[in-house]
């Protein structure tokens, strides 16, 4: 039995999101053998760019068509409530990550674990670090995506409104903000430690906005615009990026004396090279999907995983941190790494299928309940209308 949500979702979006989530999980266990084969090894961007772009597209598909007069306030509150859920989720994952490394430090007698993944300030300056955690000024390692996503969801209603009314102006304004943040290094500050957020929301909002505006434009046009020149240019850029990251040039920080956002590969400020790479790769994928319109079943494993993105992301982050801690306590080699990764991936699929099953049970219960009560109500209506029972 398919729920209404499952029946109307595009499984391809869920599958891409699932691949991004699995890639993030693998990359968040640094040094494992599978990390060599993930998306980040084939160009300038990585799974974080995929996640943010797909998130923008998903927000547009979920809310864009319904963001009209009379529903804007309700939909805005829903997006803000989702942002609140993301904030709480981030705090929970942060505390779970700290607890995992404390567990290793205590029971494996490895106190050096308390200085890993930016946990040191929590141990050394606990009151200040706790304030930093709840205000998002202190983020432990490998747990930087949810704060940015939560802030972008707060801004999403304004982006959707702009995309519907003034798409060009909205895109231009987001682009100017991205450029200004990168040129002058404007970003939220860390606390209590010095520095700035690892992922700057003022920069990453541009990619999120491109996803929203692009999805709304394609929906209005009815088809994704594909041109031979576009495919050729995107393909050339992707191939050049692949060659670049496997050459000595990849070690260079900036080029041509430009700011890192324009002439480098900086991730914090989403450098131009990274931005163009994810857009070029996305264009090629969408062009291929337009040329070969393959539809996937909504119950295929990747689609199921992608539908449960928040729960899977939370579980994947905690499992990745647990795997990191276990590898630091006991370096078991390739077989040990593969075992940790396989168990972690299996646990994420298991969680997604469990949540899907729970939803099916609830949907079945809801569909059965009206059937038992609908007949008397309809009969009463007919009596009142003079038609009899």
From TrEMBL:
InterPro entries: UCP028704_OpgC
Transmembrane segments: 47-65, 85-108, 171-187, 202-218, 230-249, 269-289, 310-329, 335-355
The entry's keywords: Membrane, Transmembrane, Transmembrane helix
Stored Pfam families: OpgC_C
Record-linked PANTHER family: BLL4819 PROTEIN
Entry protein name: OpgC protein
């Amino acid at each position: 039995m398919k729920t209404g949500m499952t029946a109307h979702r595009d499984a391809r979006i869920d599958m891409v999101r699932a691949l991004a989530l699995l890639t993030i999980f693998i990359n968040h266990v640094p040094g494992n053998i599978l990390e060599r084969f993930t998306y980040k090894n084939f160009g300038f961007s990585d799974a974080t760019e995929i996640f943010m772009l797909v998130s923008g597209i998903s927000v547009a598909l979920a809310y864009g068509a319904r963001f009209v007069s009379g529903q804007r306030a309700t939909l805005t509150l829903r997006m803000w409530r989702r942002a609140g859920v993301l904030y709480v989720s981030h705090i929970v994952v942060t505390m779970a990550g700290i607890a995992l490394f404390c567990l290793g430090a205590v029971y494996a007698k490895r106190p050096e674990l308390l200085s890993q993944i930016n946990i040191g300030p929590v141990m050394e300056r606990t009151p200040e670090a706790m304030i930093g955690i709840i205000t998002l000024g202190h983020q432990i390692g490998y747990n930087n995506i949810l704060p940015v996503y939560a802030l972008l969801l707060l801004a999403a209603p304004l982006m959707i409104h702009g995309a519907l009314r003034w798409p060009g102006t909205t895109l231009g304004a987001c682009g100017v903000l991205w450029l200004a943040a990168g040129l002058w290094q404007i970003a939220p500050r860390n606390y209590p430690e010095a520095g700035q957020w690892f992922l700057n929301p003022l920069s990453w909002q541009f990619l999120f906005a491109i996803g929203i505006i692009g999805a709304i434009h394609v929906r209005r046009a009815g088809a994704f615009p594909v041109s031979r020149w576009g495919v050729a240019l995107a393909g050339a850029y992707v191939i050049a990026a692949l060659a670049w990251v496997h050459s000595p040039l990849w070690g260079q920080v900036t080029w041509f004396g430009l700011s890192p956002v324009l002439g480098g590969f900086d991730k914090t400020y989403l450098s131009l090279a990274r931005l163009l790479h994810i857009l070029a790769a996305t264009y090629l994928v969408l062009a291929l999907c337009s040329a070969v319109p393959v539809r996937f079943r909504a119950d295929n494993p990747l689609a199921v995983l992608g539908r449960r993105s928040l729960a899977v992301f939370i579980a994947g982050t905690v499992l990745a941190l647990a795997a990191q801690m276990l590898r630091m306590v006991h370096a078991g080699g390739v077989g040990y790494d593969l075992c940790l990764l396989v168990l972690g991936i299996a646990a994420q699929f298991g969680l997604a299928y469990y949540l899907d099953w729970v939803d099916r049970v609830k949907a079945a219960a809801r569909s059965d309940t009206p059937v038992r009560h609908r007949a008397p109500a309809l009969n009463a209506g007919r009596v009142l209308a003079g038609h009899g029972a």
